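During the second year of the project, the team shifted from modelling isolated chains to modelling whole assemblies. The rationale, set out in the original proposal, was that interfaces cannot be judged from single-chain predictions alone. As a representative example for this report, we include one of the complexes processed in the last quarter. Its constituent sequences, exactly as entered into the pipeline, are reproduced here:
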Amino acid sequence: MILAPDPQGPIDTTNGATISCNLLKPLPGWSMTEACTLRINAEIDRLATLRLFVENHVRDHNPDPDALYDILLAITEAASNIIQHGYRGKQGWIELEIQIRNSDMAIILRDEAPDFDLSVVPQPDLHLPLHKRPLGGLGVFLINTSMDEVQSRHLPQGGNELFLLKRDFLRHSQGDVSS
Amino acid sequence: MKLTINEVQSNVSVTILGLDGELDASNFQEVILTAQNIISESQRHLMLDMSALKFISSSGIIALHSIVLLMRGEAPPDLEYGWEAFRSIDRSQGTTKHPFVKLIRPQPKVARTLEVTGLMPFFEIFDDVASALASFSTSKT
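Output from the structure prediction step:
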């Protein structure tokens, strides 16, 4: 069932991209969930498509600009990691699912790349001088600082799933009466 | 992303590299290469006009860092990047701002990313070209 119109804007669907907006399984504890999914080829030139997809979808929800920027940054970093460190130049796909409930937004990125565990990447300590900071991914650091919740897991059938949550991403709460 | 190059002349010759659009892993190497070309033409004073840069990812951070290294005559970091990339800049120069690379008016969200990634201390930031230009005139060459 289509719950939301196809995102408006020049998303190029001629390069293997598919878009669907459906009533998908709600997250635990969530009620009716508006969800849209974009699948693209895992190519670095498609990063802007991921951002455009999210921007188009949330445009009518009156998002907080800073929160939206954080979401776009986290998605960009996550997808870049999948393409560069997951697939490592091999062909593949990335699926981006966004779910909105009241003022929260969940983002789920799936791929079929070899296992890549974000949790093993060390977090830099910004209180240390630069030369003493532990090594690790700058992109992972930005994901963790931009989002309220980050979870990654390997899928039983192979591939990876990254769950990101941004709370209160709307400029004005639309009233969550379920809690 | 659109890149523009302009030359301005004051007490010193300065190149303004304008960044317009979104800077991410798909185009950051183009920025590094453009800066490399500018520097190879013996330009030692560079402004990065970031007023039209709407988005910057970690790859863009690496591009800015690479430009600082290039201005110092060093090779840019390996593109297999991370916090490792920042180590050389700190070893060589501590946390001082680079005197010949200035940033013009980064948008607040872009500036926030520079801040949280620890890159901000390496750059002087100006609200306009005129004040950045004046600062070059007072920099020691």
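The helical segments of chain B are 28-40, 58-71, 84-93, 108-116, 129-138. Chain B touches chain A through 27 residues (CB under 8 Å).
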